[in-house]
Design goal:
alpha+beta, Beta-lactamase, Nuclear Transport Factor 2, Chain: A, 2 domains, 7-stranded antiparallel β-sheet, 4-stranded antiparallel β-sheet, 15 helices
Amino acid sequence: MLLSVALLSLLSAAPCPQLSAAEFTKRTEERILAGGVPGAALAVFKDGKVMYQQAAGFADVAKQTPYTTELAFEVGSLSKQFTAMALLMLVNEKKLALDAPLGTVLDELPEAWRAATVEQVMHHMSGIPDYEEIAGYDYYNEPHAAADVIRRAAEHQPHFKPGERFEYSNTGYYLLSLIVAKQSGLPFERFLATRIFEPLGMRSSYALERPADVQVATGYHGRTGTRVAQPPIAWSATLGAGGIVSTIADMLRWDEALYTERLLPAALRAKLWEPAKANDGRTIPYGAGWFTDETRGLAHLSHSGQTNGFSCYYLRFPEQHLSVLVHYNTYGGGIGSLARTAAAHFLPALNYASLPLARDEDPDLTAEHLAALRQAVLKEGELDLLGPGMRRFANEASFASERDPLRPLLESSRSFRLVREHPLGEGADAVEEFLYRQEHADGETFWTMRFAEGVLVSLNWEDE
């Protein structure tokens, strides 16, 4: 889901350059439980090994079954990187061309979809509507034929011509799954099992049928503020857009394979994280199943995954050979911030506490940004400084568990100072990112705020 993101902060005193292992574990567990998340697991991979892992909460709330790092979880949109890998494997075998129009490889598509190329679909630049936005997350609770998925997406016309811009589309990756199946001669779940999971030793990962010895946590959704257990995701309703189930141990095997040529030669493997180009030459910071970015000069790759009952976040720093993986057994919950906080702990160069304050050339703008923050958290004023996603964050009951811990931080605020500002994107996609350091009664918090056309569209908060 690519709406504005609001993320949990650690409940802690003033940040320090490096917490002890025991203190990091303690604060991480406090953070998970304070956020109302049923259960969670976190792992850090370094040089091919698990250097840290932790679990907290419950795999089944009713039975009070403890959450563990061995549990399988629905990876949601992390499935897209496996789908992209499968697609590129067929390209490597000369069974598919990235510049092939969809209409030449799939039959019975709406005419308006047929001109988009396989590569444009892979980069979310096809314009094909997202059936998830049309049908909602409950659509994944029941099996659906491909014709039904296509019909639902076709209820809306394409939003733009292929290649004009980026717009996330689960429909696109559903179609790529169908292409892999057609061009390989295998059902897509069999291709994943025989060509990716089995060769890499990912014995607990699956798509359609759960192995008898694999235990999966119960997933929960809290649309109304109350957590409700959800059924397992239906494979046929999502395929490679979001239907894979895996474990921390298996994701470590996947993570390591991405450093090697076990599945793809280096040149094709690099296309997984090669930023796309729009028709007008603009760079789009998305490869194939991976967002590309950098923080404090460190390049990283990332993607989130959400299903009706699970959330996960996968963050990779290839040059440092370090990755962070977090999963919750609930939809939502501000998971990306926990992954980034763990990365900052194990890569101290990312720690915000070491950043110097910037010279604030526009105090009035800083005051306006603080007002936007207070609108988002305290619901002050008319919410005129908030974009649609952040207005949802300010108003809806489902975000209360994330908003409420932030109230005392703003109510006891002592300072709100600019650390840095950074432009992102160009033209119609331009966004300004600001990092602020706030002192309050409980210590300090770092707020990352993104503004587009003068309104707050994204918010993240961290203490280190």
